[in-house]
Amino acid sequence: MAQHPAIWIKDPIGIFAENAARGIVVRDGRIVELVQAGGAPRTADAVAFDASAHVVLPGLINTHHHFYQTLTRAVPAAMDRELFPWLQALYPIWAGLTPQSLELGVTVAMSELLLSGCTTTTDHHYVFPRGLEEAVDIEVGVAKRLGMRVLLTRGSMNRSQRDGGLPPDSVVQDEGTILADSARVVAKHHQRGEDAMVQIALAPCSPFSVTTSLMRKTAELAEKLDVRLHTHLAETEDENKFCEQIHNCRPLDYLEDCGWLNARTWLAHGIFFNASEMKRLGKAKTTISHCACSNQILASGCCPVCEMEEAGVAIGLGVDGSASNDESNLMQEVRAAFLLQRARYGVTRVSHKDALRWATRGSAACIGRPELGEIAVGKAADLALFKLDELRFSGHGDPLAALVLCGAHRADRVMVAGKWTVIDGAIPNLDVADLIRRHSAAARKMQVT
Ligand SMILES: [Zn+2]
How far apart are CA 294 and CA 296, in angstroms? Predict the structure, then answer.
């Protein structure tokens, strides 16, 4: 393989790493050297990139999202509602998703994420109306075009209103179809190894939209294919009640009973676990995606992240679907998580560095990619570089803290696997105005039908 010249990200004004005050050297998609204060790169042919106006972070990792929901932001019928009635208001609109509108929704979500400094994202796609059977394939196409690293999930729903579930019949599929397509997308798209750009996980939507049989068979399939498992759990009190009514147990007991309580699984939300449940999660190495904005908008509650971490549970961050956030900006999610958790735990237990750690190393643990989320030799060259030249930063002290405290929201440069995917605050070859025009038109059309 031909070697590309090494790049020295030189003399940043701040960097979220130890022993790298003069920057880092990247080559062939990996970080190959940290340059200490007063030092110079040992890599002889490294070409310098002047980072003297930048703060450098490991690329942020988004561990929970529903890209298609960018088409239904701030929908009046769903506003000011809690999770269940919110879902019931939106399901009929989502039933109108088409391959064209999905592709636009996905492009908008991924572009927003990239521009906010996110280099790796997951997506949880579980709405499969007739005609949208290739939803995951469409998402893979967009990720490749934008150069983003992804862990896309083949989501599912098979318990509709007919069977006592929440979603209407028009958006669910049967178990056989779901399992066959899950195996198909893994075989077609899932890459293995540390340099993987596209991975697939399996993700039944939630206990109230999926049958027990599908939960169990999905876990078995994930084990057989060696891919990760994802679902929503312990998001609301309503969910606890539903679980107790239908299954006579709490959500975590149900999860365990279905064969999901293990290191393969990461869960979105995790708000309503008690102390002994947190210990069980920690022991099982199951991880949690904390979605601070979504949890606040839907008034679901607050994930007890410090207790979770003390119990050995890794915490990542997720922007969650754009109908409950309603944005896809991971840097702002870092600030939201920082503020929410600081209010809960106080100044000595939560710092801006904790929030940055959740969005990087913590998120990497959630998605089973320890080679991501950290600036260290041998790790992936996935980086987010922010400038501090906006009005909001004027007068700042600590540059790293300023990103979180002053509310950074747009990266100036983003690198994924050693390639620049955002340059001067823009995605090369992406006509944003045209994308907004087409995406808005598709959203309007969906929302009136
Ligand atoms: Zn979600």
Answer: 5
Residue 309 tokens read as 């971490």
Please name the amino acid found at residue 280.
R
pTM, whole model, 2 decimals? 0.97
Query: Coil, helix or strand for 358?
Result: helix
Question: Ligand 1: distance of its center to the CA of 66 in Å?
Answer: 6
> How do strand 23-27 and strand 30-34 relate by DSSP bridges?
antiparallel
CA of 322 to the centre of ligand 1 (A): 9
Over residues 324-377, the pLDDT tens digits come to 778 899 999 999 999 999 999 999 999 999 999 999 999 999 999 999 999 999
Report the separation in Å between the CA atom of 320 and the middle of ligand 1, taken as the mean of its atom positions: 5
How many Cβ atoms from other residues are within 10 Å of residue 212's Cβ? Answer: 14
CA 277 / ligand 1 centre spacing (Å): 21
Instruction: Quote the CA–CA distance of 141 and 100 in Å, as a whole number.
Output: 13
Q: What is the pLDDT of residues 200-256, one digit of tens each?
A: 999 999 877 899 999 999 999 999 999 999 999 999 888 888 889 888 999 999 999
Q: Give me ligand 1 centre to Cα 410, in Å.
A: 23
